[in-house]
Structure formats: structure tokens, C-alpha cells
């Protein structure tokens, strides 16, 4: 069996952070004889520059035949004025949709060493370990009709459509309940059922799935505005959160800050067979791209998720997580998680610190 990984660095800091994650993969591949093979492809702005499209046929083919995908990030100032149909983000959205990667797992864990890096009080975030499950291939991101039209009065009107079918809600609900079963057994579904019919259906279907298949999981519901507030007020009340595509996008960036930095949050986007794409939740950070200061840990931790979910190598995944912990224990910090008394290092030096920790027994 081959264990083929498609590597799509993308744009901006994408190339810098993926290089560090590949360094870690290379090390473990040799050290544990994982038998992983890598093949690189273009996505996003880099693909647009080379082929005139952010999502070339050959990238789709590469992603389809790979067992897993590692993605950096897409987007940047350079492509912001392009037609939305060929913007870098379309490449990422196309991959998610074509591969039906509907379940996006975004764990927000506070490493105790970073309590001082969070903008929240240490007692609010200490011990934080929540899992956000974001529906990734439906909702307003993909709903039709969409566009900008000309009204009779001569002004333009922009429109998008929020749609979810029962089957789309059911499949993400199953993933969420099963995730909660393996954790503390608590699931909070986030919607806007007081205003939007589509999310009223979401609430009904999630409730039915819970009653029918997972009566032992404690299910609660929150409106998204309250959920956003609760995440900042008392985030440890949550175990697993499940929500729609756009709400999940926003709530996961909020949660990232609970852990000290958006540079710490990995993600897995899975299909029904656990084939997955793995990427940090942050973007291409054009404001710091090329400076060698981005935090590569979210991407390195995404590789750990890949080894656990797609390749069933929890042993290797655990080693990466321990090595990250050890690098933080050694007071190594990129700028985004820096605090007084720590050693501020580059992207590359942070990758090296993780490798050193692996060499030293993590
Ligand atoms: P962003 O996540 O790229 O950056 C937000 C802020 O966080 C910036 O100040 C950035 O410097 C900082 N940041 C992000 N990652 C960091 C890291 N690893 N280390 C240190 N600091 C980090 O969001 P944005 O600025 O809104 O978007 C920039 C571009 O990225 C846009 O084109 C957007 O569409 C794209 N984007 C892509 C993805 C993705 O590929 N998955 C995700 C989000 C945004
Ligand atoms: C993310 C990003 C993407 C999203 C963009 C770049 C399309 O913000 O992965 O969170 O909105 O899903
Ligand atoms: Mn996002």
C-alpha cells in the first residue's frame, strides 16, 4: 500500500509553514519507516500565475489519487482584484467540494505554556480543550443562486443563498455526535434558528439524530451570537461544537485566540472515508509573508492530525504533539506567541526545535 501525500503549499506564508511541516514528516518518515510519499502541486494564486486558474485539472487529479493532502494557505494582495471566479480562494473551495470533505475538525487546545500569550485571562483559558466541527461543503458558501444582479432601478444587488438539505445536516451531525462520544459526551449545536428557516431545520435534524442514535450524548443548542459571546466569556463550558460552514469559519478564528494565536490551530477536513485534507485554520498572512516569522505549529499539528485520522498512526501523531510541547517547554516562540523572557525565533528555527525534540526522544 502506498501512503501518498499531495503537498499544496499555496501562497504567502503557505510555502514557509509547509516547508517546516514537511521537515517534520521527512524526519518521522525515516525514523519510523512510515513509507510516506510526497508529490507537490499548485493551488490558489500560485496556480493562477502558472496556469491561469487557481484550481488546475492536474491539482484535482493529484488530490484525488493521494491518500491525504497537506495544504498551506491561499490568497494574497496580488490576486485581490481578480474576478471572484478565479481568486485563489476558489481553488481551496473547489478542492473541499470536489473531494466532498464535508467534516472540518478544528481543535482548540491551550498549551499551558501559552497561557500568557492568550489575550484572555489565564484562568479563563487554562486547560482549554474544545473541538469545533464545521460543515465544510454546503451552506451559504456553495448555495445557489448567487451573484450580483442589476435591479430595475439601476442599482446592483448582491445575493447568496443559505441552503442545507437534511442529508447534509445528518452526516455532519453523525460526525459531531461520534466525536462527542469519544470525548466528554457533550455536544453544542450552533445555529440562528430564531431567524433563519434553514438553521431551524438544522436544529430539528440534529435533535432527531441525537434522540435516535446518541441519547447518551448531552445535546444543547445556542444561537450563534450567544455562542460567540460564550466562547470568550467561559470557553471551557464547551466540549464539542457543531455548526454550519460560515458560522464555523468565524467561531474557529475566535477560538484560535483562546489558545494564544491563530498560528496554533490545525484542522482536518474529512470525507466519509476519512480521506482528508489537512491545513492550518489561518490564511496566507500577506502582512508577514516572506519575512520568515510565521508560526508553523498549526501546520505541524495538522500533520499530526493527518497521521492520526488518515494513516491511523496515533503513535507518530503523539510524537509530534509531544515535540511541540517540548519546543514550547524550551521557551522557543515565534513572534505571535512571544512573551517576556522567551526566546523569539524564526519559522525555520521553530521547525528545527520540533525536530530536535523528536531527536531527543519525543
Ligand atoms: P490570515 O489568517 O491570513 O491572517 C490574519 C492575521 O493573523 C494576520 O495578521 C496574520 O499575520 C496573522 N497570522 C495568520 N497566520 C499566522 C501564523 N501562522 N503565524 C503568525 N501570524 C499569523 O487572514 P486574512 O489576513 O484575513 O487573510 C489573508 C489571505 O488569506 C486572504 O486572501 C484570505 O482569503 C486567505 N485565507 C486563506 C485561508 C486558507 O487558505 N485556508 C484561510 C484564511 C484566509
Ligand atoms: C478558512 C478560510 C477559507 C474559508 C477561505 C480562504 C475560503 O477562511 O479555511 O477558514 O472561508 O473557509
Ligand atoms: Mn477562516
From TrEMBL:
Coiled coil residues, start to end: none
Domain of life: Bacteria
Signal sequence region: none
Transmembrane segments: none
Residue positions binding Mg(2+): 225, 249, 253
Cell compartments where the protein resides: Cytoplasm
Binding locations of substrate: 96, 106, 134, 225
A biological process term (GO) from this entry: L-leucine biosynthetic process
Annotated cofactor note: Binds 1 Mg(2+) or Mn(2+) ion per subunit.
Catalytic activity: (2R,3S)-3-isopropylmalate + NAD(+) = 4-methyl-2-oxopentanoate + CO2 + NADH
EC code(s) of this entry: 1.1.1.85
Chain ranges of the Isopropylmalate dehydrogenase-like domain: 4-354
Cofactor(s) in the UniProt record: Mn(2+); Mg(2+)
Pfam families membership: Iso_dh (PF00180)
Residues the record marks as site: Important for catalysis: 141, 192
Pathway recorded for this protein: Amino-acid biosynthesis; L-leucine biosynthesis; L-leucine from 3-methyl-2-oxobutanoate: step 3/4
Keywords: Amino-acid biosynthesis, Branched-chain amino acid biosynthesis, Cytoplasm, Leucine biosynthesis, Magnesium, Manganese, Metal-binding, NAD, Oxidoreductase
GO MF: 3-isopropylmalate dehydrogenase activity; magnesium ion binding; NAD binding
GO terms under cellular component: cytosol
Positions contributing to NAD(+) binding: 76-89, 283-295
The protein's assembly and partners: Homodimer.
Protein role: Catalyzes the oxidation of 3-carboxy-2-hydroxy-4-methylpentanoate (3-isopropylmalate) to 3-carboxy-4-methyl-2-oxopentanoate. The product decarboxylates to 4-methyl-2 oxopentanoate.
Family listed: Belongs to the isocitrate and isopropylmalate dehydrogenases family. LeuB type 1 subfamily.
HAMAP family reported in the protein's UniProt record: LeuB_type1
Protein's recorded name: 3-isopropylmalate dehydrogenase
Organism in which the protein naturally occurs: Methylovulum psychrotolerans
Taxonomic lineage from the root: Bacteria, Pseudomonadati, Pseudomonadota, Gammaproteobacteria, Methylococcales
Amino acid at each position: 500500500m502506498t501512503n501518498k501525500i499531495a503537498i499544496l503549499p499555496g501562497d504567502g506564508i503557505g510555502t514557509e509553514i509547509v516547508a517546516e511541516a514537511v521537515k517534520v514528516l521527512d524526519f518521522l518518515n525515516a525514523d519510523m519507516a512510515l513509507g510516506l510519499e510526497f508529490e507537490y502541486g499548485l493551488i490558489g494564486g500560485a496556480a493562477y500565475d502558472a496556469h491561469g486558474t487557481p484550481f488546475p485539472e492536474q491539482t484535482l487529479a493529484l488530490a484525488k489519487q493521494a491518500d491525504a493532502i497537506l495544504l498551506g494557505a491561499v490568497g494574497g494582495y496580488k490576486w485581490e482584484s481578480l474576478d471572484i471566479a478565479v481568486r485563489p480562494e476558489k481553488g481551496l473551495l473547489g478542492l473541499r467540494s470536489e473531494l466532498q470533505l464535508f467534516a472540518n475538525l478544528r481543535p482548540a487546545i491551550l498549551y499551558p505554556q501559552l497561557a500568557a500569550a492568550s489575550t484572555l485571562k489565564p484562568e479563563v483559558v487554562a486547560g482549554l480543550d474544545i473541538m469545533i466541527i464545521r460543515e465544510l461543503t454546503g451552506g451559504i458558501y456553495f448555495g445557489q443562486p448567487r451573484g450580483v444582479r442589476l435591479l430595475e432601478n439601476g442599482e446592483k444587488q448582491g445575493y447568496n443563498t443559505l441552503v442545507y438539505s437534511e442529508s447534509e445536516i445528518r452526516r455532519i451531525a453523525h460526525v459531531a455526535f461520534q466525536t462527542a462520544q469519544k470525548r466528554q459526551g457533550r455536544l453544542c449545536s450552533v445555529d440562528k434558528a430564531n431567524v433563519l428557516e434553514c438553521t431551524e431545520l438544522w436544529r430539528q435534524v440534529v435533535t432527531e439524530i441525537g434522540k435516535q442514535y446518541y441519547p447518551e450524548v448531552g445535546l444543547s443548542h445556542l444561537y450563534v451570537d450567544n455562542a460567540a459571546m460564550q466562547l470568550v466569556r467561559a470557553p471551557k463550558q464547551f466540549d464539542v461544537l457543531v455548526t454550519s460552514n460560515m458560522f464555523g469559519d468565524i467561531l474557529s478564528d475566535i477560538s484560535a485566540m483562546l489558545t494564544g494565536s491563530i498560528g496554533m490551530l490545525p484542522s482536518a477536513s474529512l470525507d466519509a472515508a476519512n480521506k482528508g485534507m489537512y491545513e492550518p485554520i489561518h490564511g496566507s498572512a500577506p502582512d508577514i509573508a516572506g519575512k520568515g516569522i510565521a508560526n508553523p505549529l498549526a501546520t505541524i499539528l495538522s500533520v499530526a492530525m493527518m497521521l492520526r485520522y488518515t494513516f491511523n498512526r496515533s503513535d507518530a501523531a503523539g510524537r509530534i504533539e509531544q515535540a511541540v510541547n517540548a519546543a514550547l517547554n524550551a521557551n522557543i516562540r515565534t513572534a505571535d506567541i512571544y512573551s517576556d523572557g522567551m526566546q523569539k525565533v524564526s519559522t525555520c528555527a521553530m521547525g528545527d526545535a520540533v525536530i530536535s525534540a523528536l531527536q531527543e526522544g519525543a
